[in-house]
Amino acid sequence: MSGSYANFDECEAADLDPKAVDRLAKRLGRAARDAKRLGLTIFGGSGHGSLRIHDQGDRNGALIVGVIEGTNWDGGDGGNYPHADGLWRGER
């Protein structure tokens, strides 16, 4: 399956409304596509988010062209796997 969507079984296990999660995933997916069209990367980690653009071969680091409000950010490589309980789990 491609695109942005909610994982139904995982939502149920977390006692979350799958329709609400699906709407949020799709909204964030649209924002990510809009950023990509502008050549931007969405970066999140260490409690903050930003919009970045890579220039000059990253010799000087990506330019931070925007700051994203909120403290609901986590970093890492985004690893995930099917757990023994049958649900998809992320890195610890």
How would you portray this structure in words?
- The structure is a single chain.
- By secondary structure, this protein is an alpha+beta fold.
- Helix content is 28%, strand content 25%.
- It contains two helices and five strands.
- A hairpin with a 5-residue loop joins strand 4 and strand 5.
- The longest helix has 20 residues.
- It is elongated and about 45 Å long.
What is the helix tally? 2
- Global outline: elongated
Summed up, the domain count is 2
What string, H for helix and E for strand, traces the elements in order? HHEEEEE
Largest sheet: 3 strands, antiparallel
The percentage helix is 25-40%
Strand order of the largest sheet: 1-2-3
Q: What is the gyration radius calculated from CA atoms?
A: 16 Å
What share of the residues does DSSP label as strand, in percent?
25-35%
- The first-to-last residue Cα distance is 24 Å
Broad structural category: alpha+beta
Number of strands: 5
Unreliable stretches covering 5 or more consecutive residues = none
Oligomer: single chain
Mean pLDDT score, rounded? Answer: 88
What attributes characterize this protein structure?
single chain, 92 residues, alpha+beta, 2 domains, three-stranded antiparallel beta sheet, two-stranded antiparallel ribbon, 2 helices, 5 strands, 28% helix, elongated
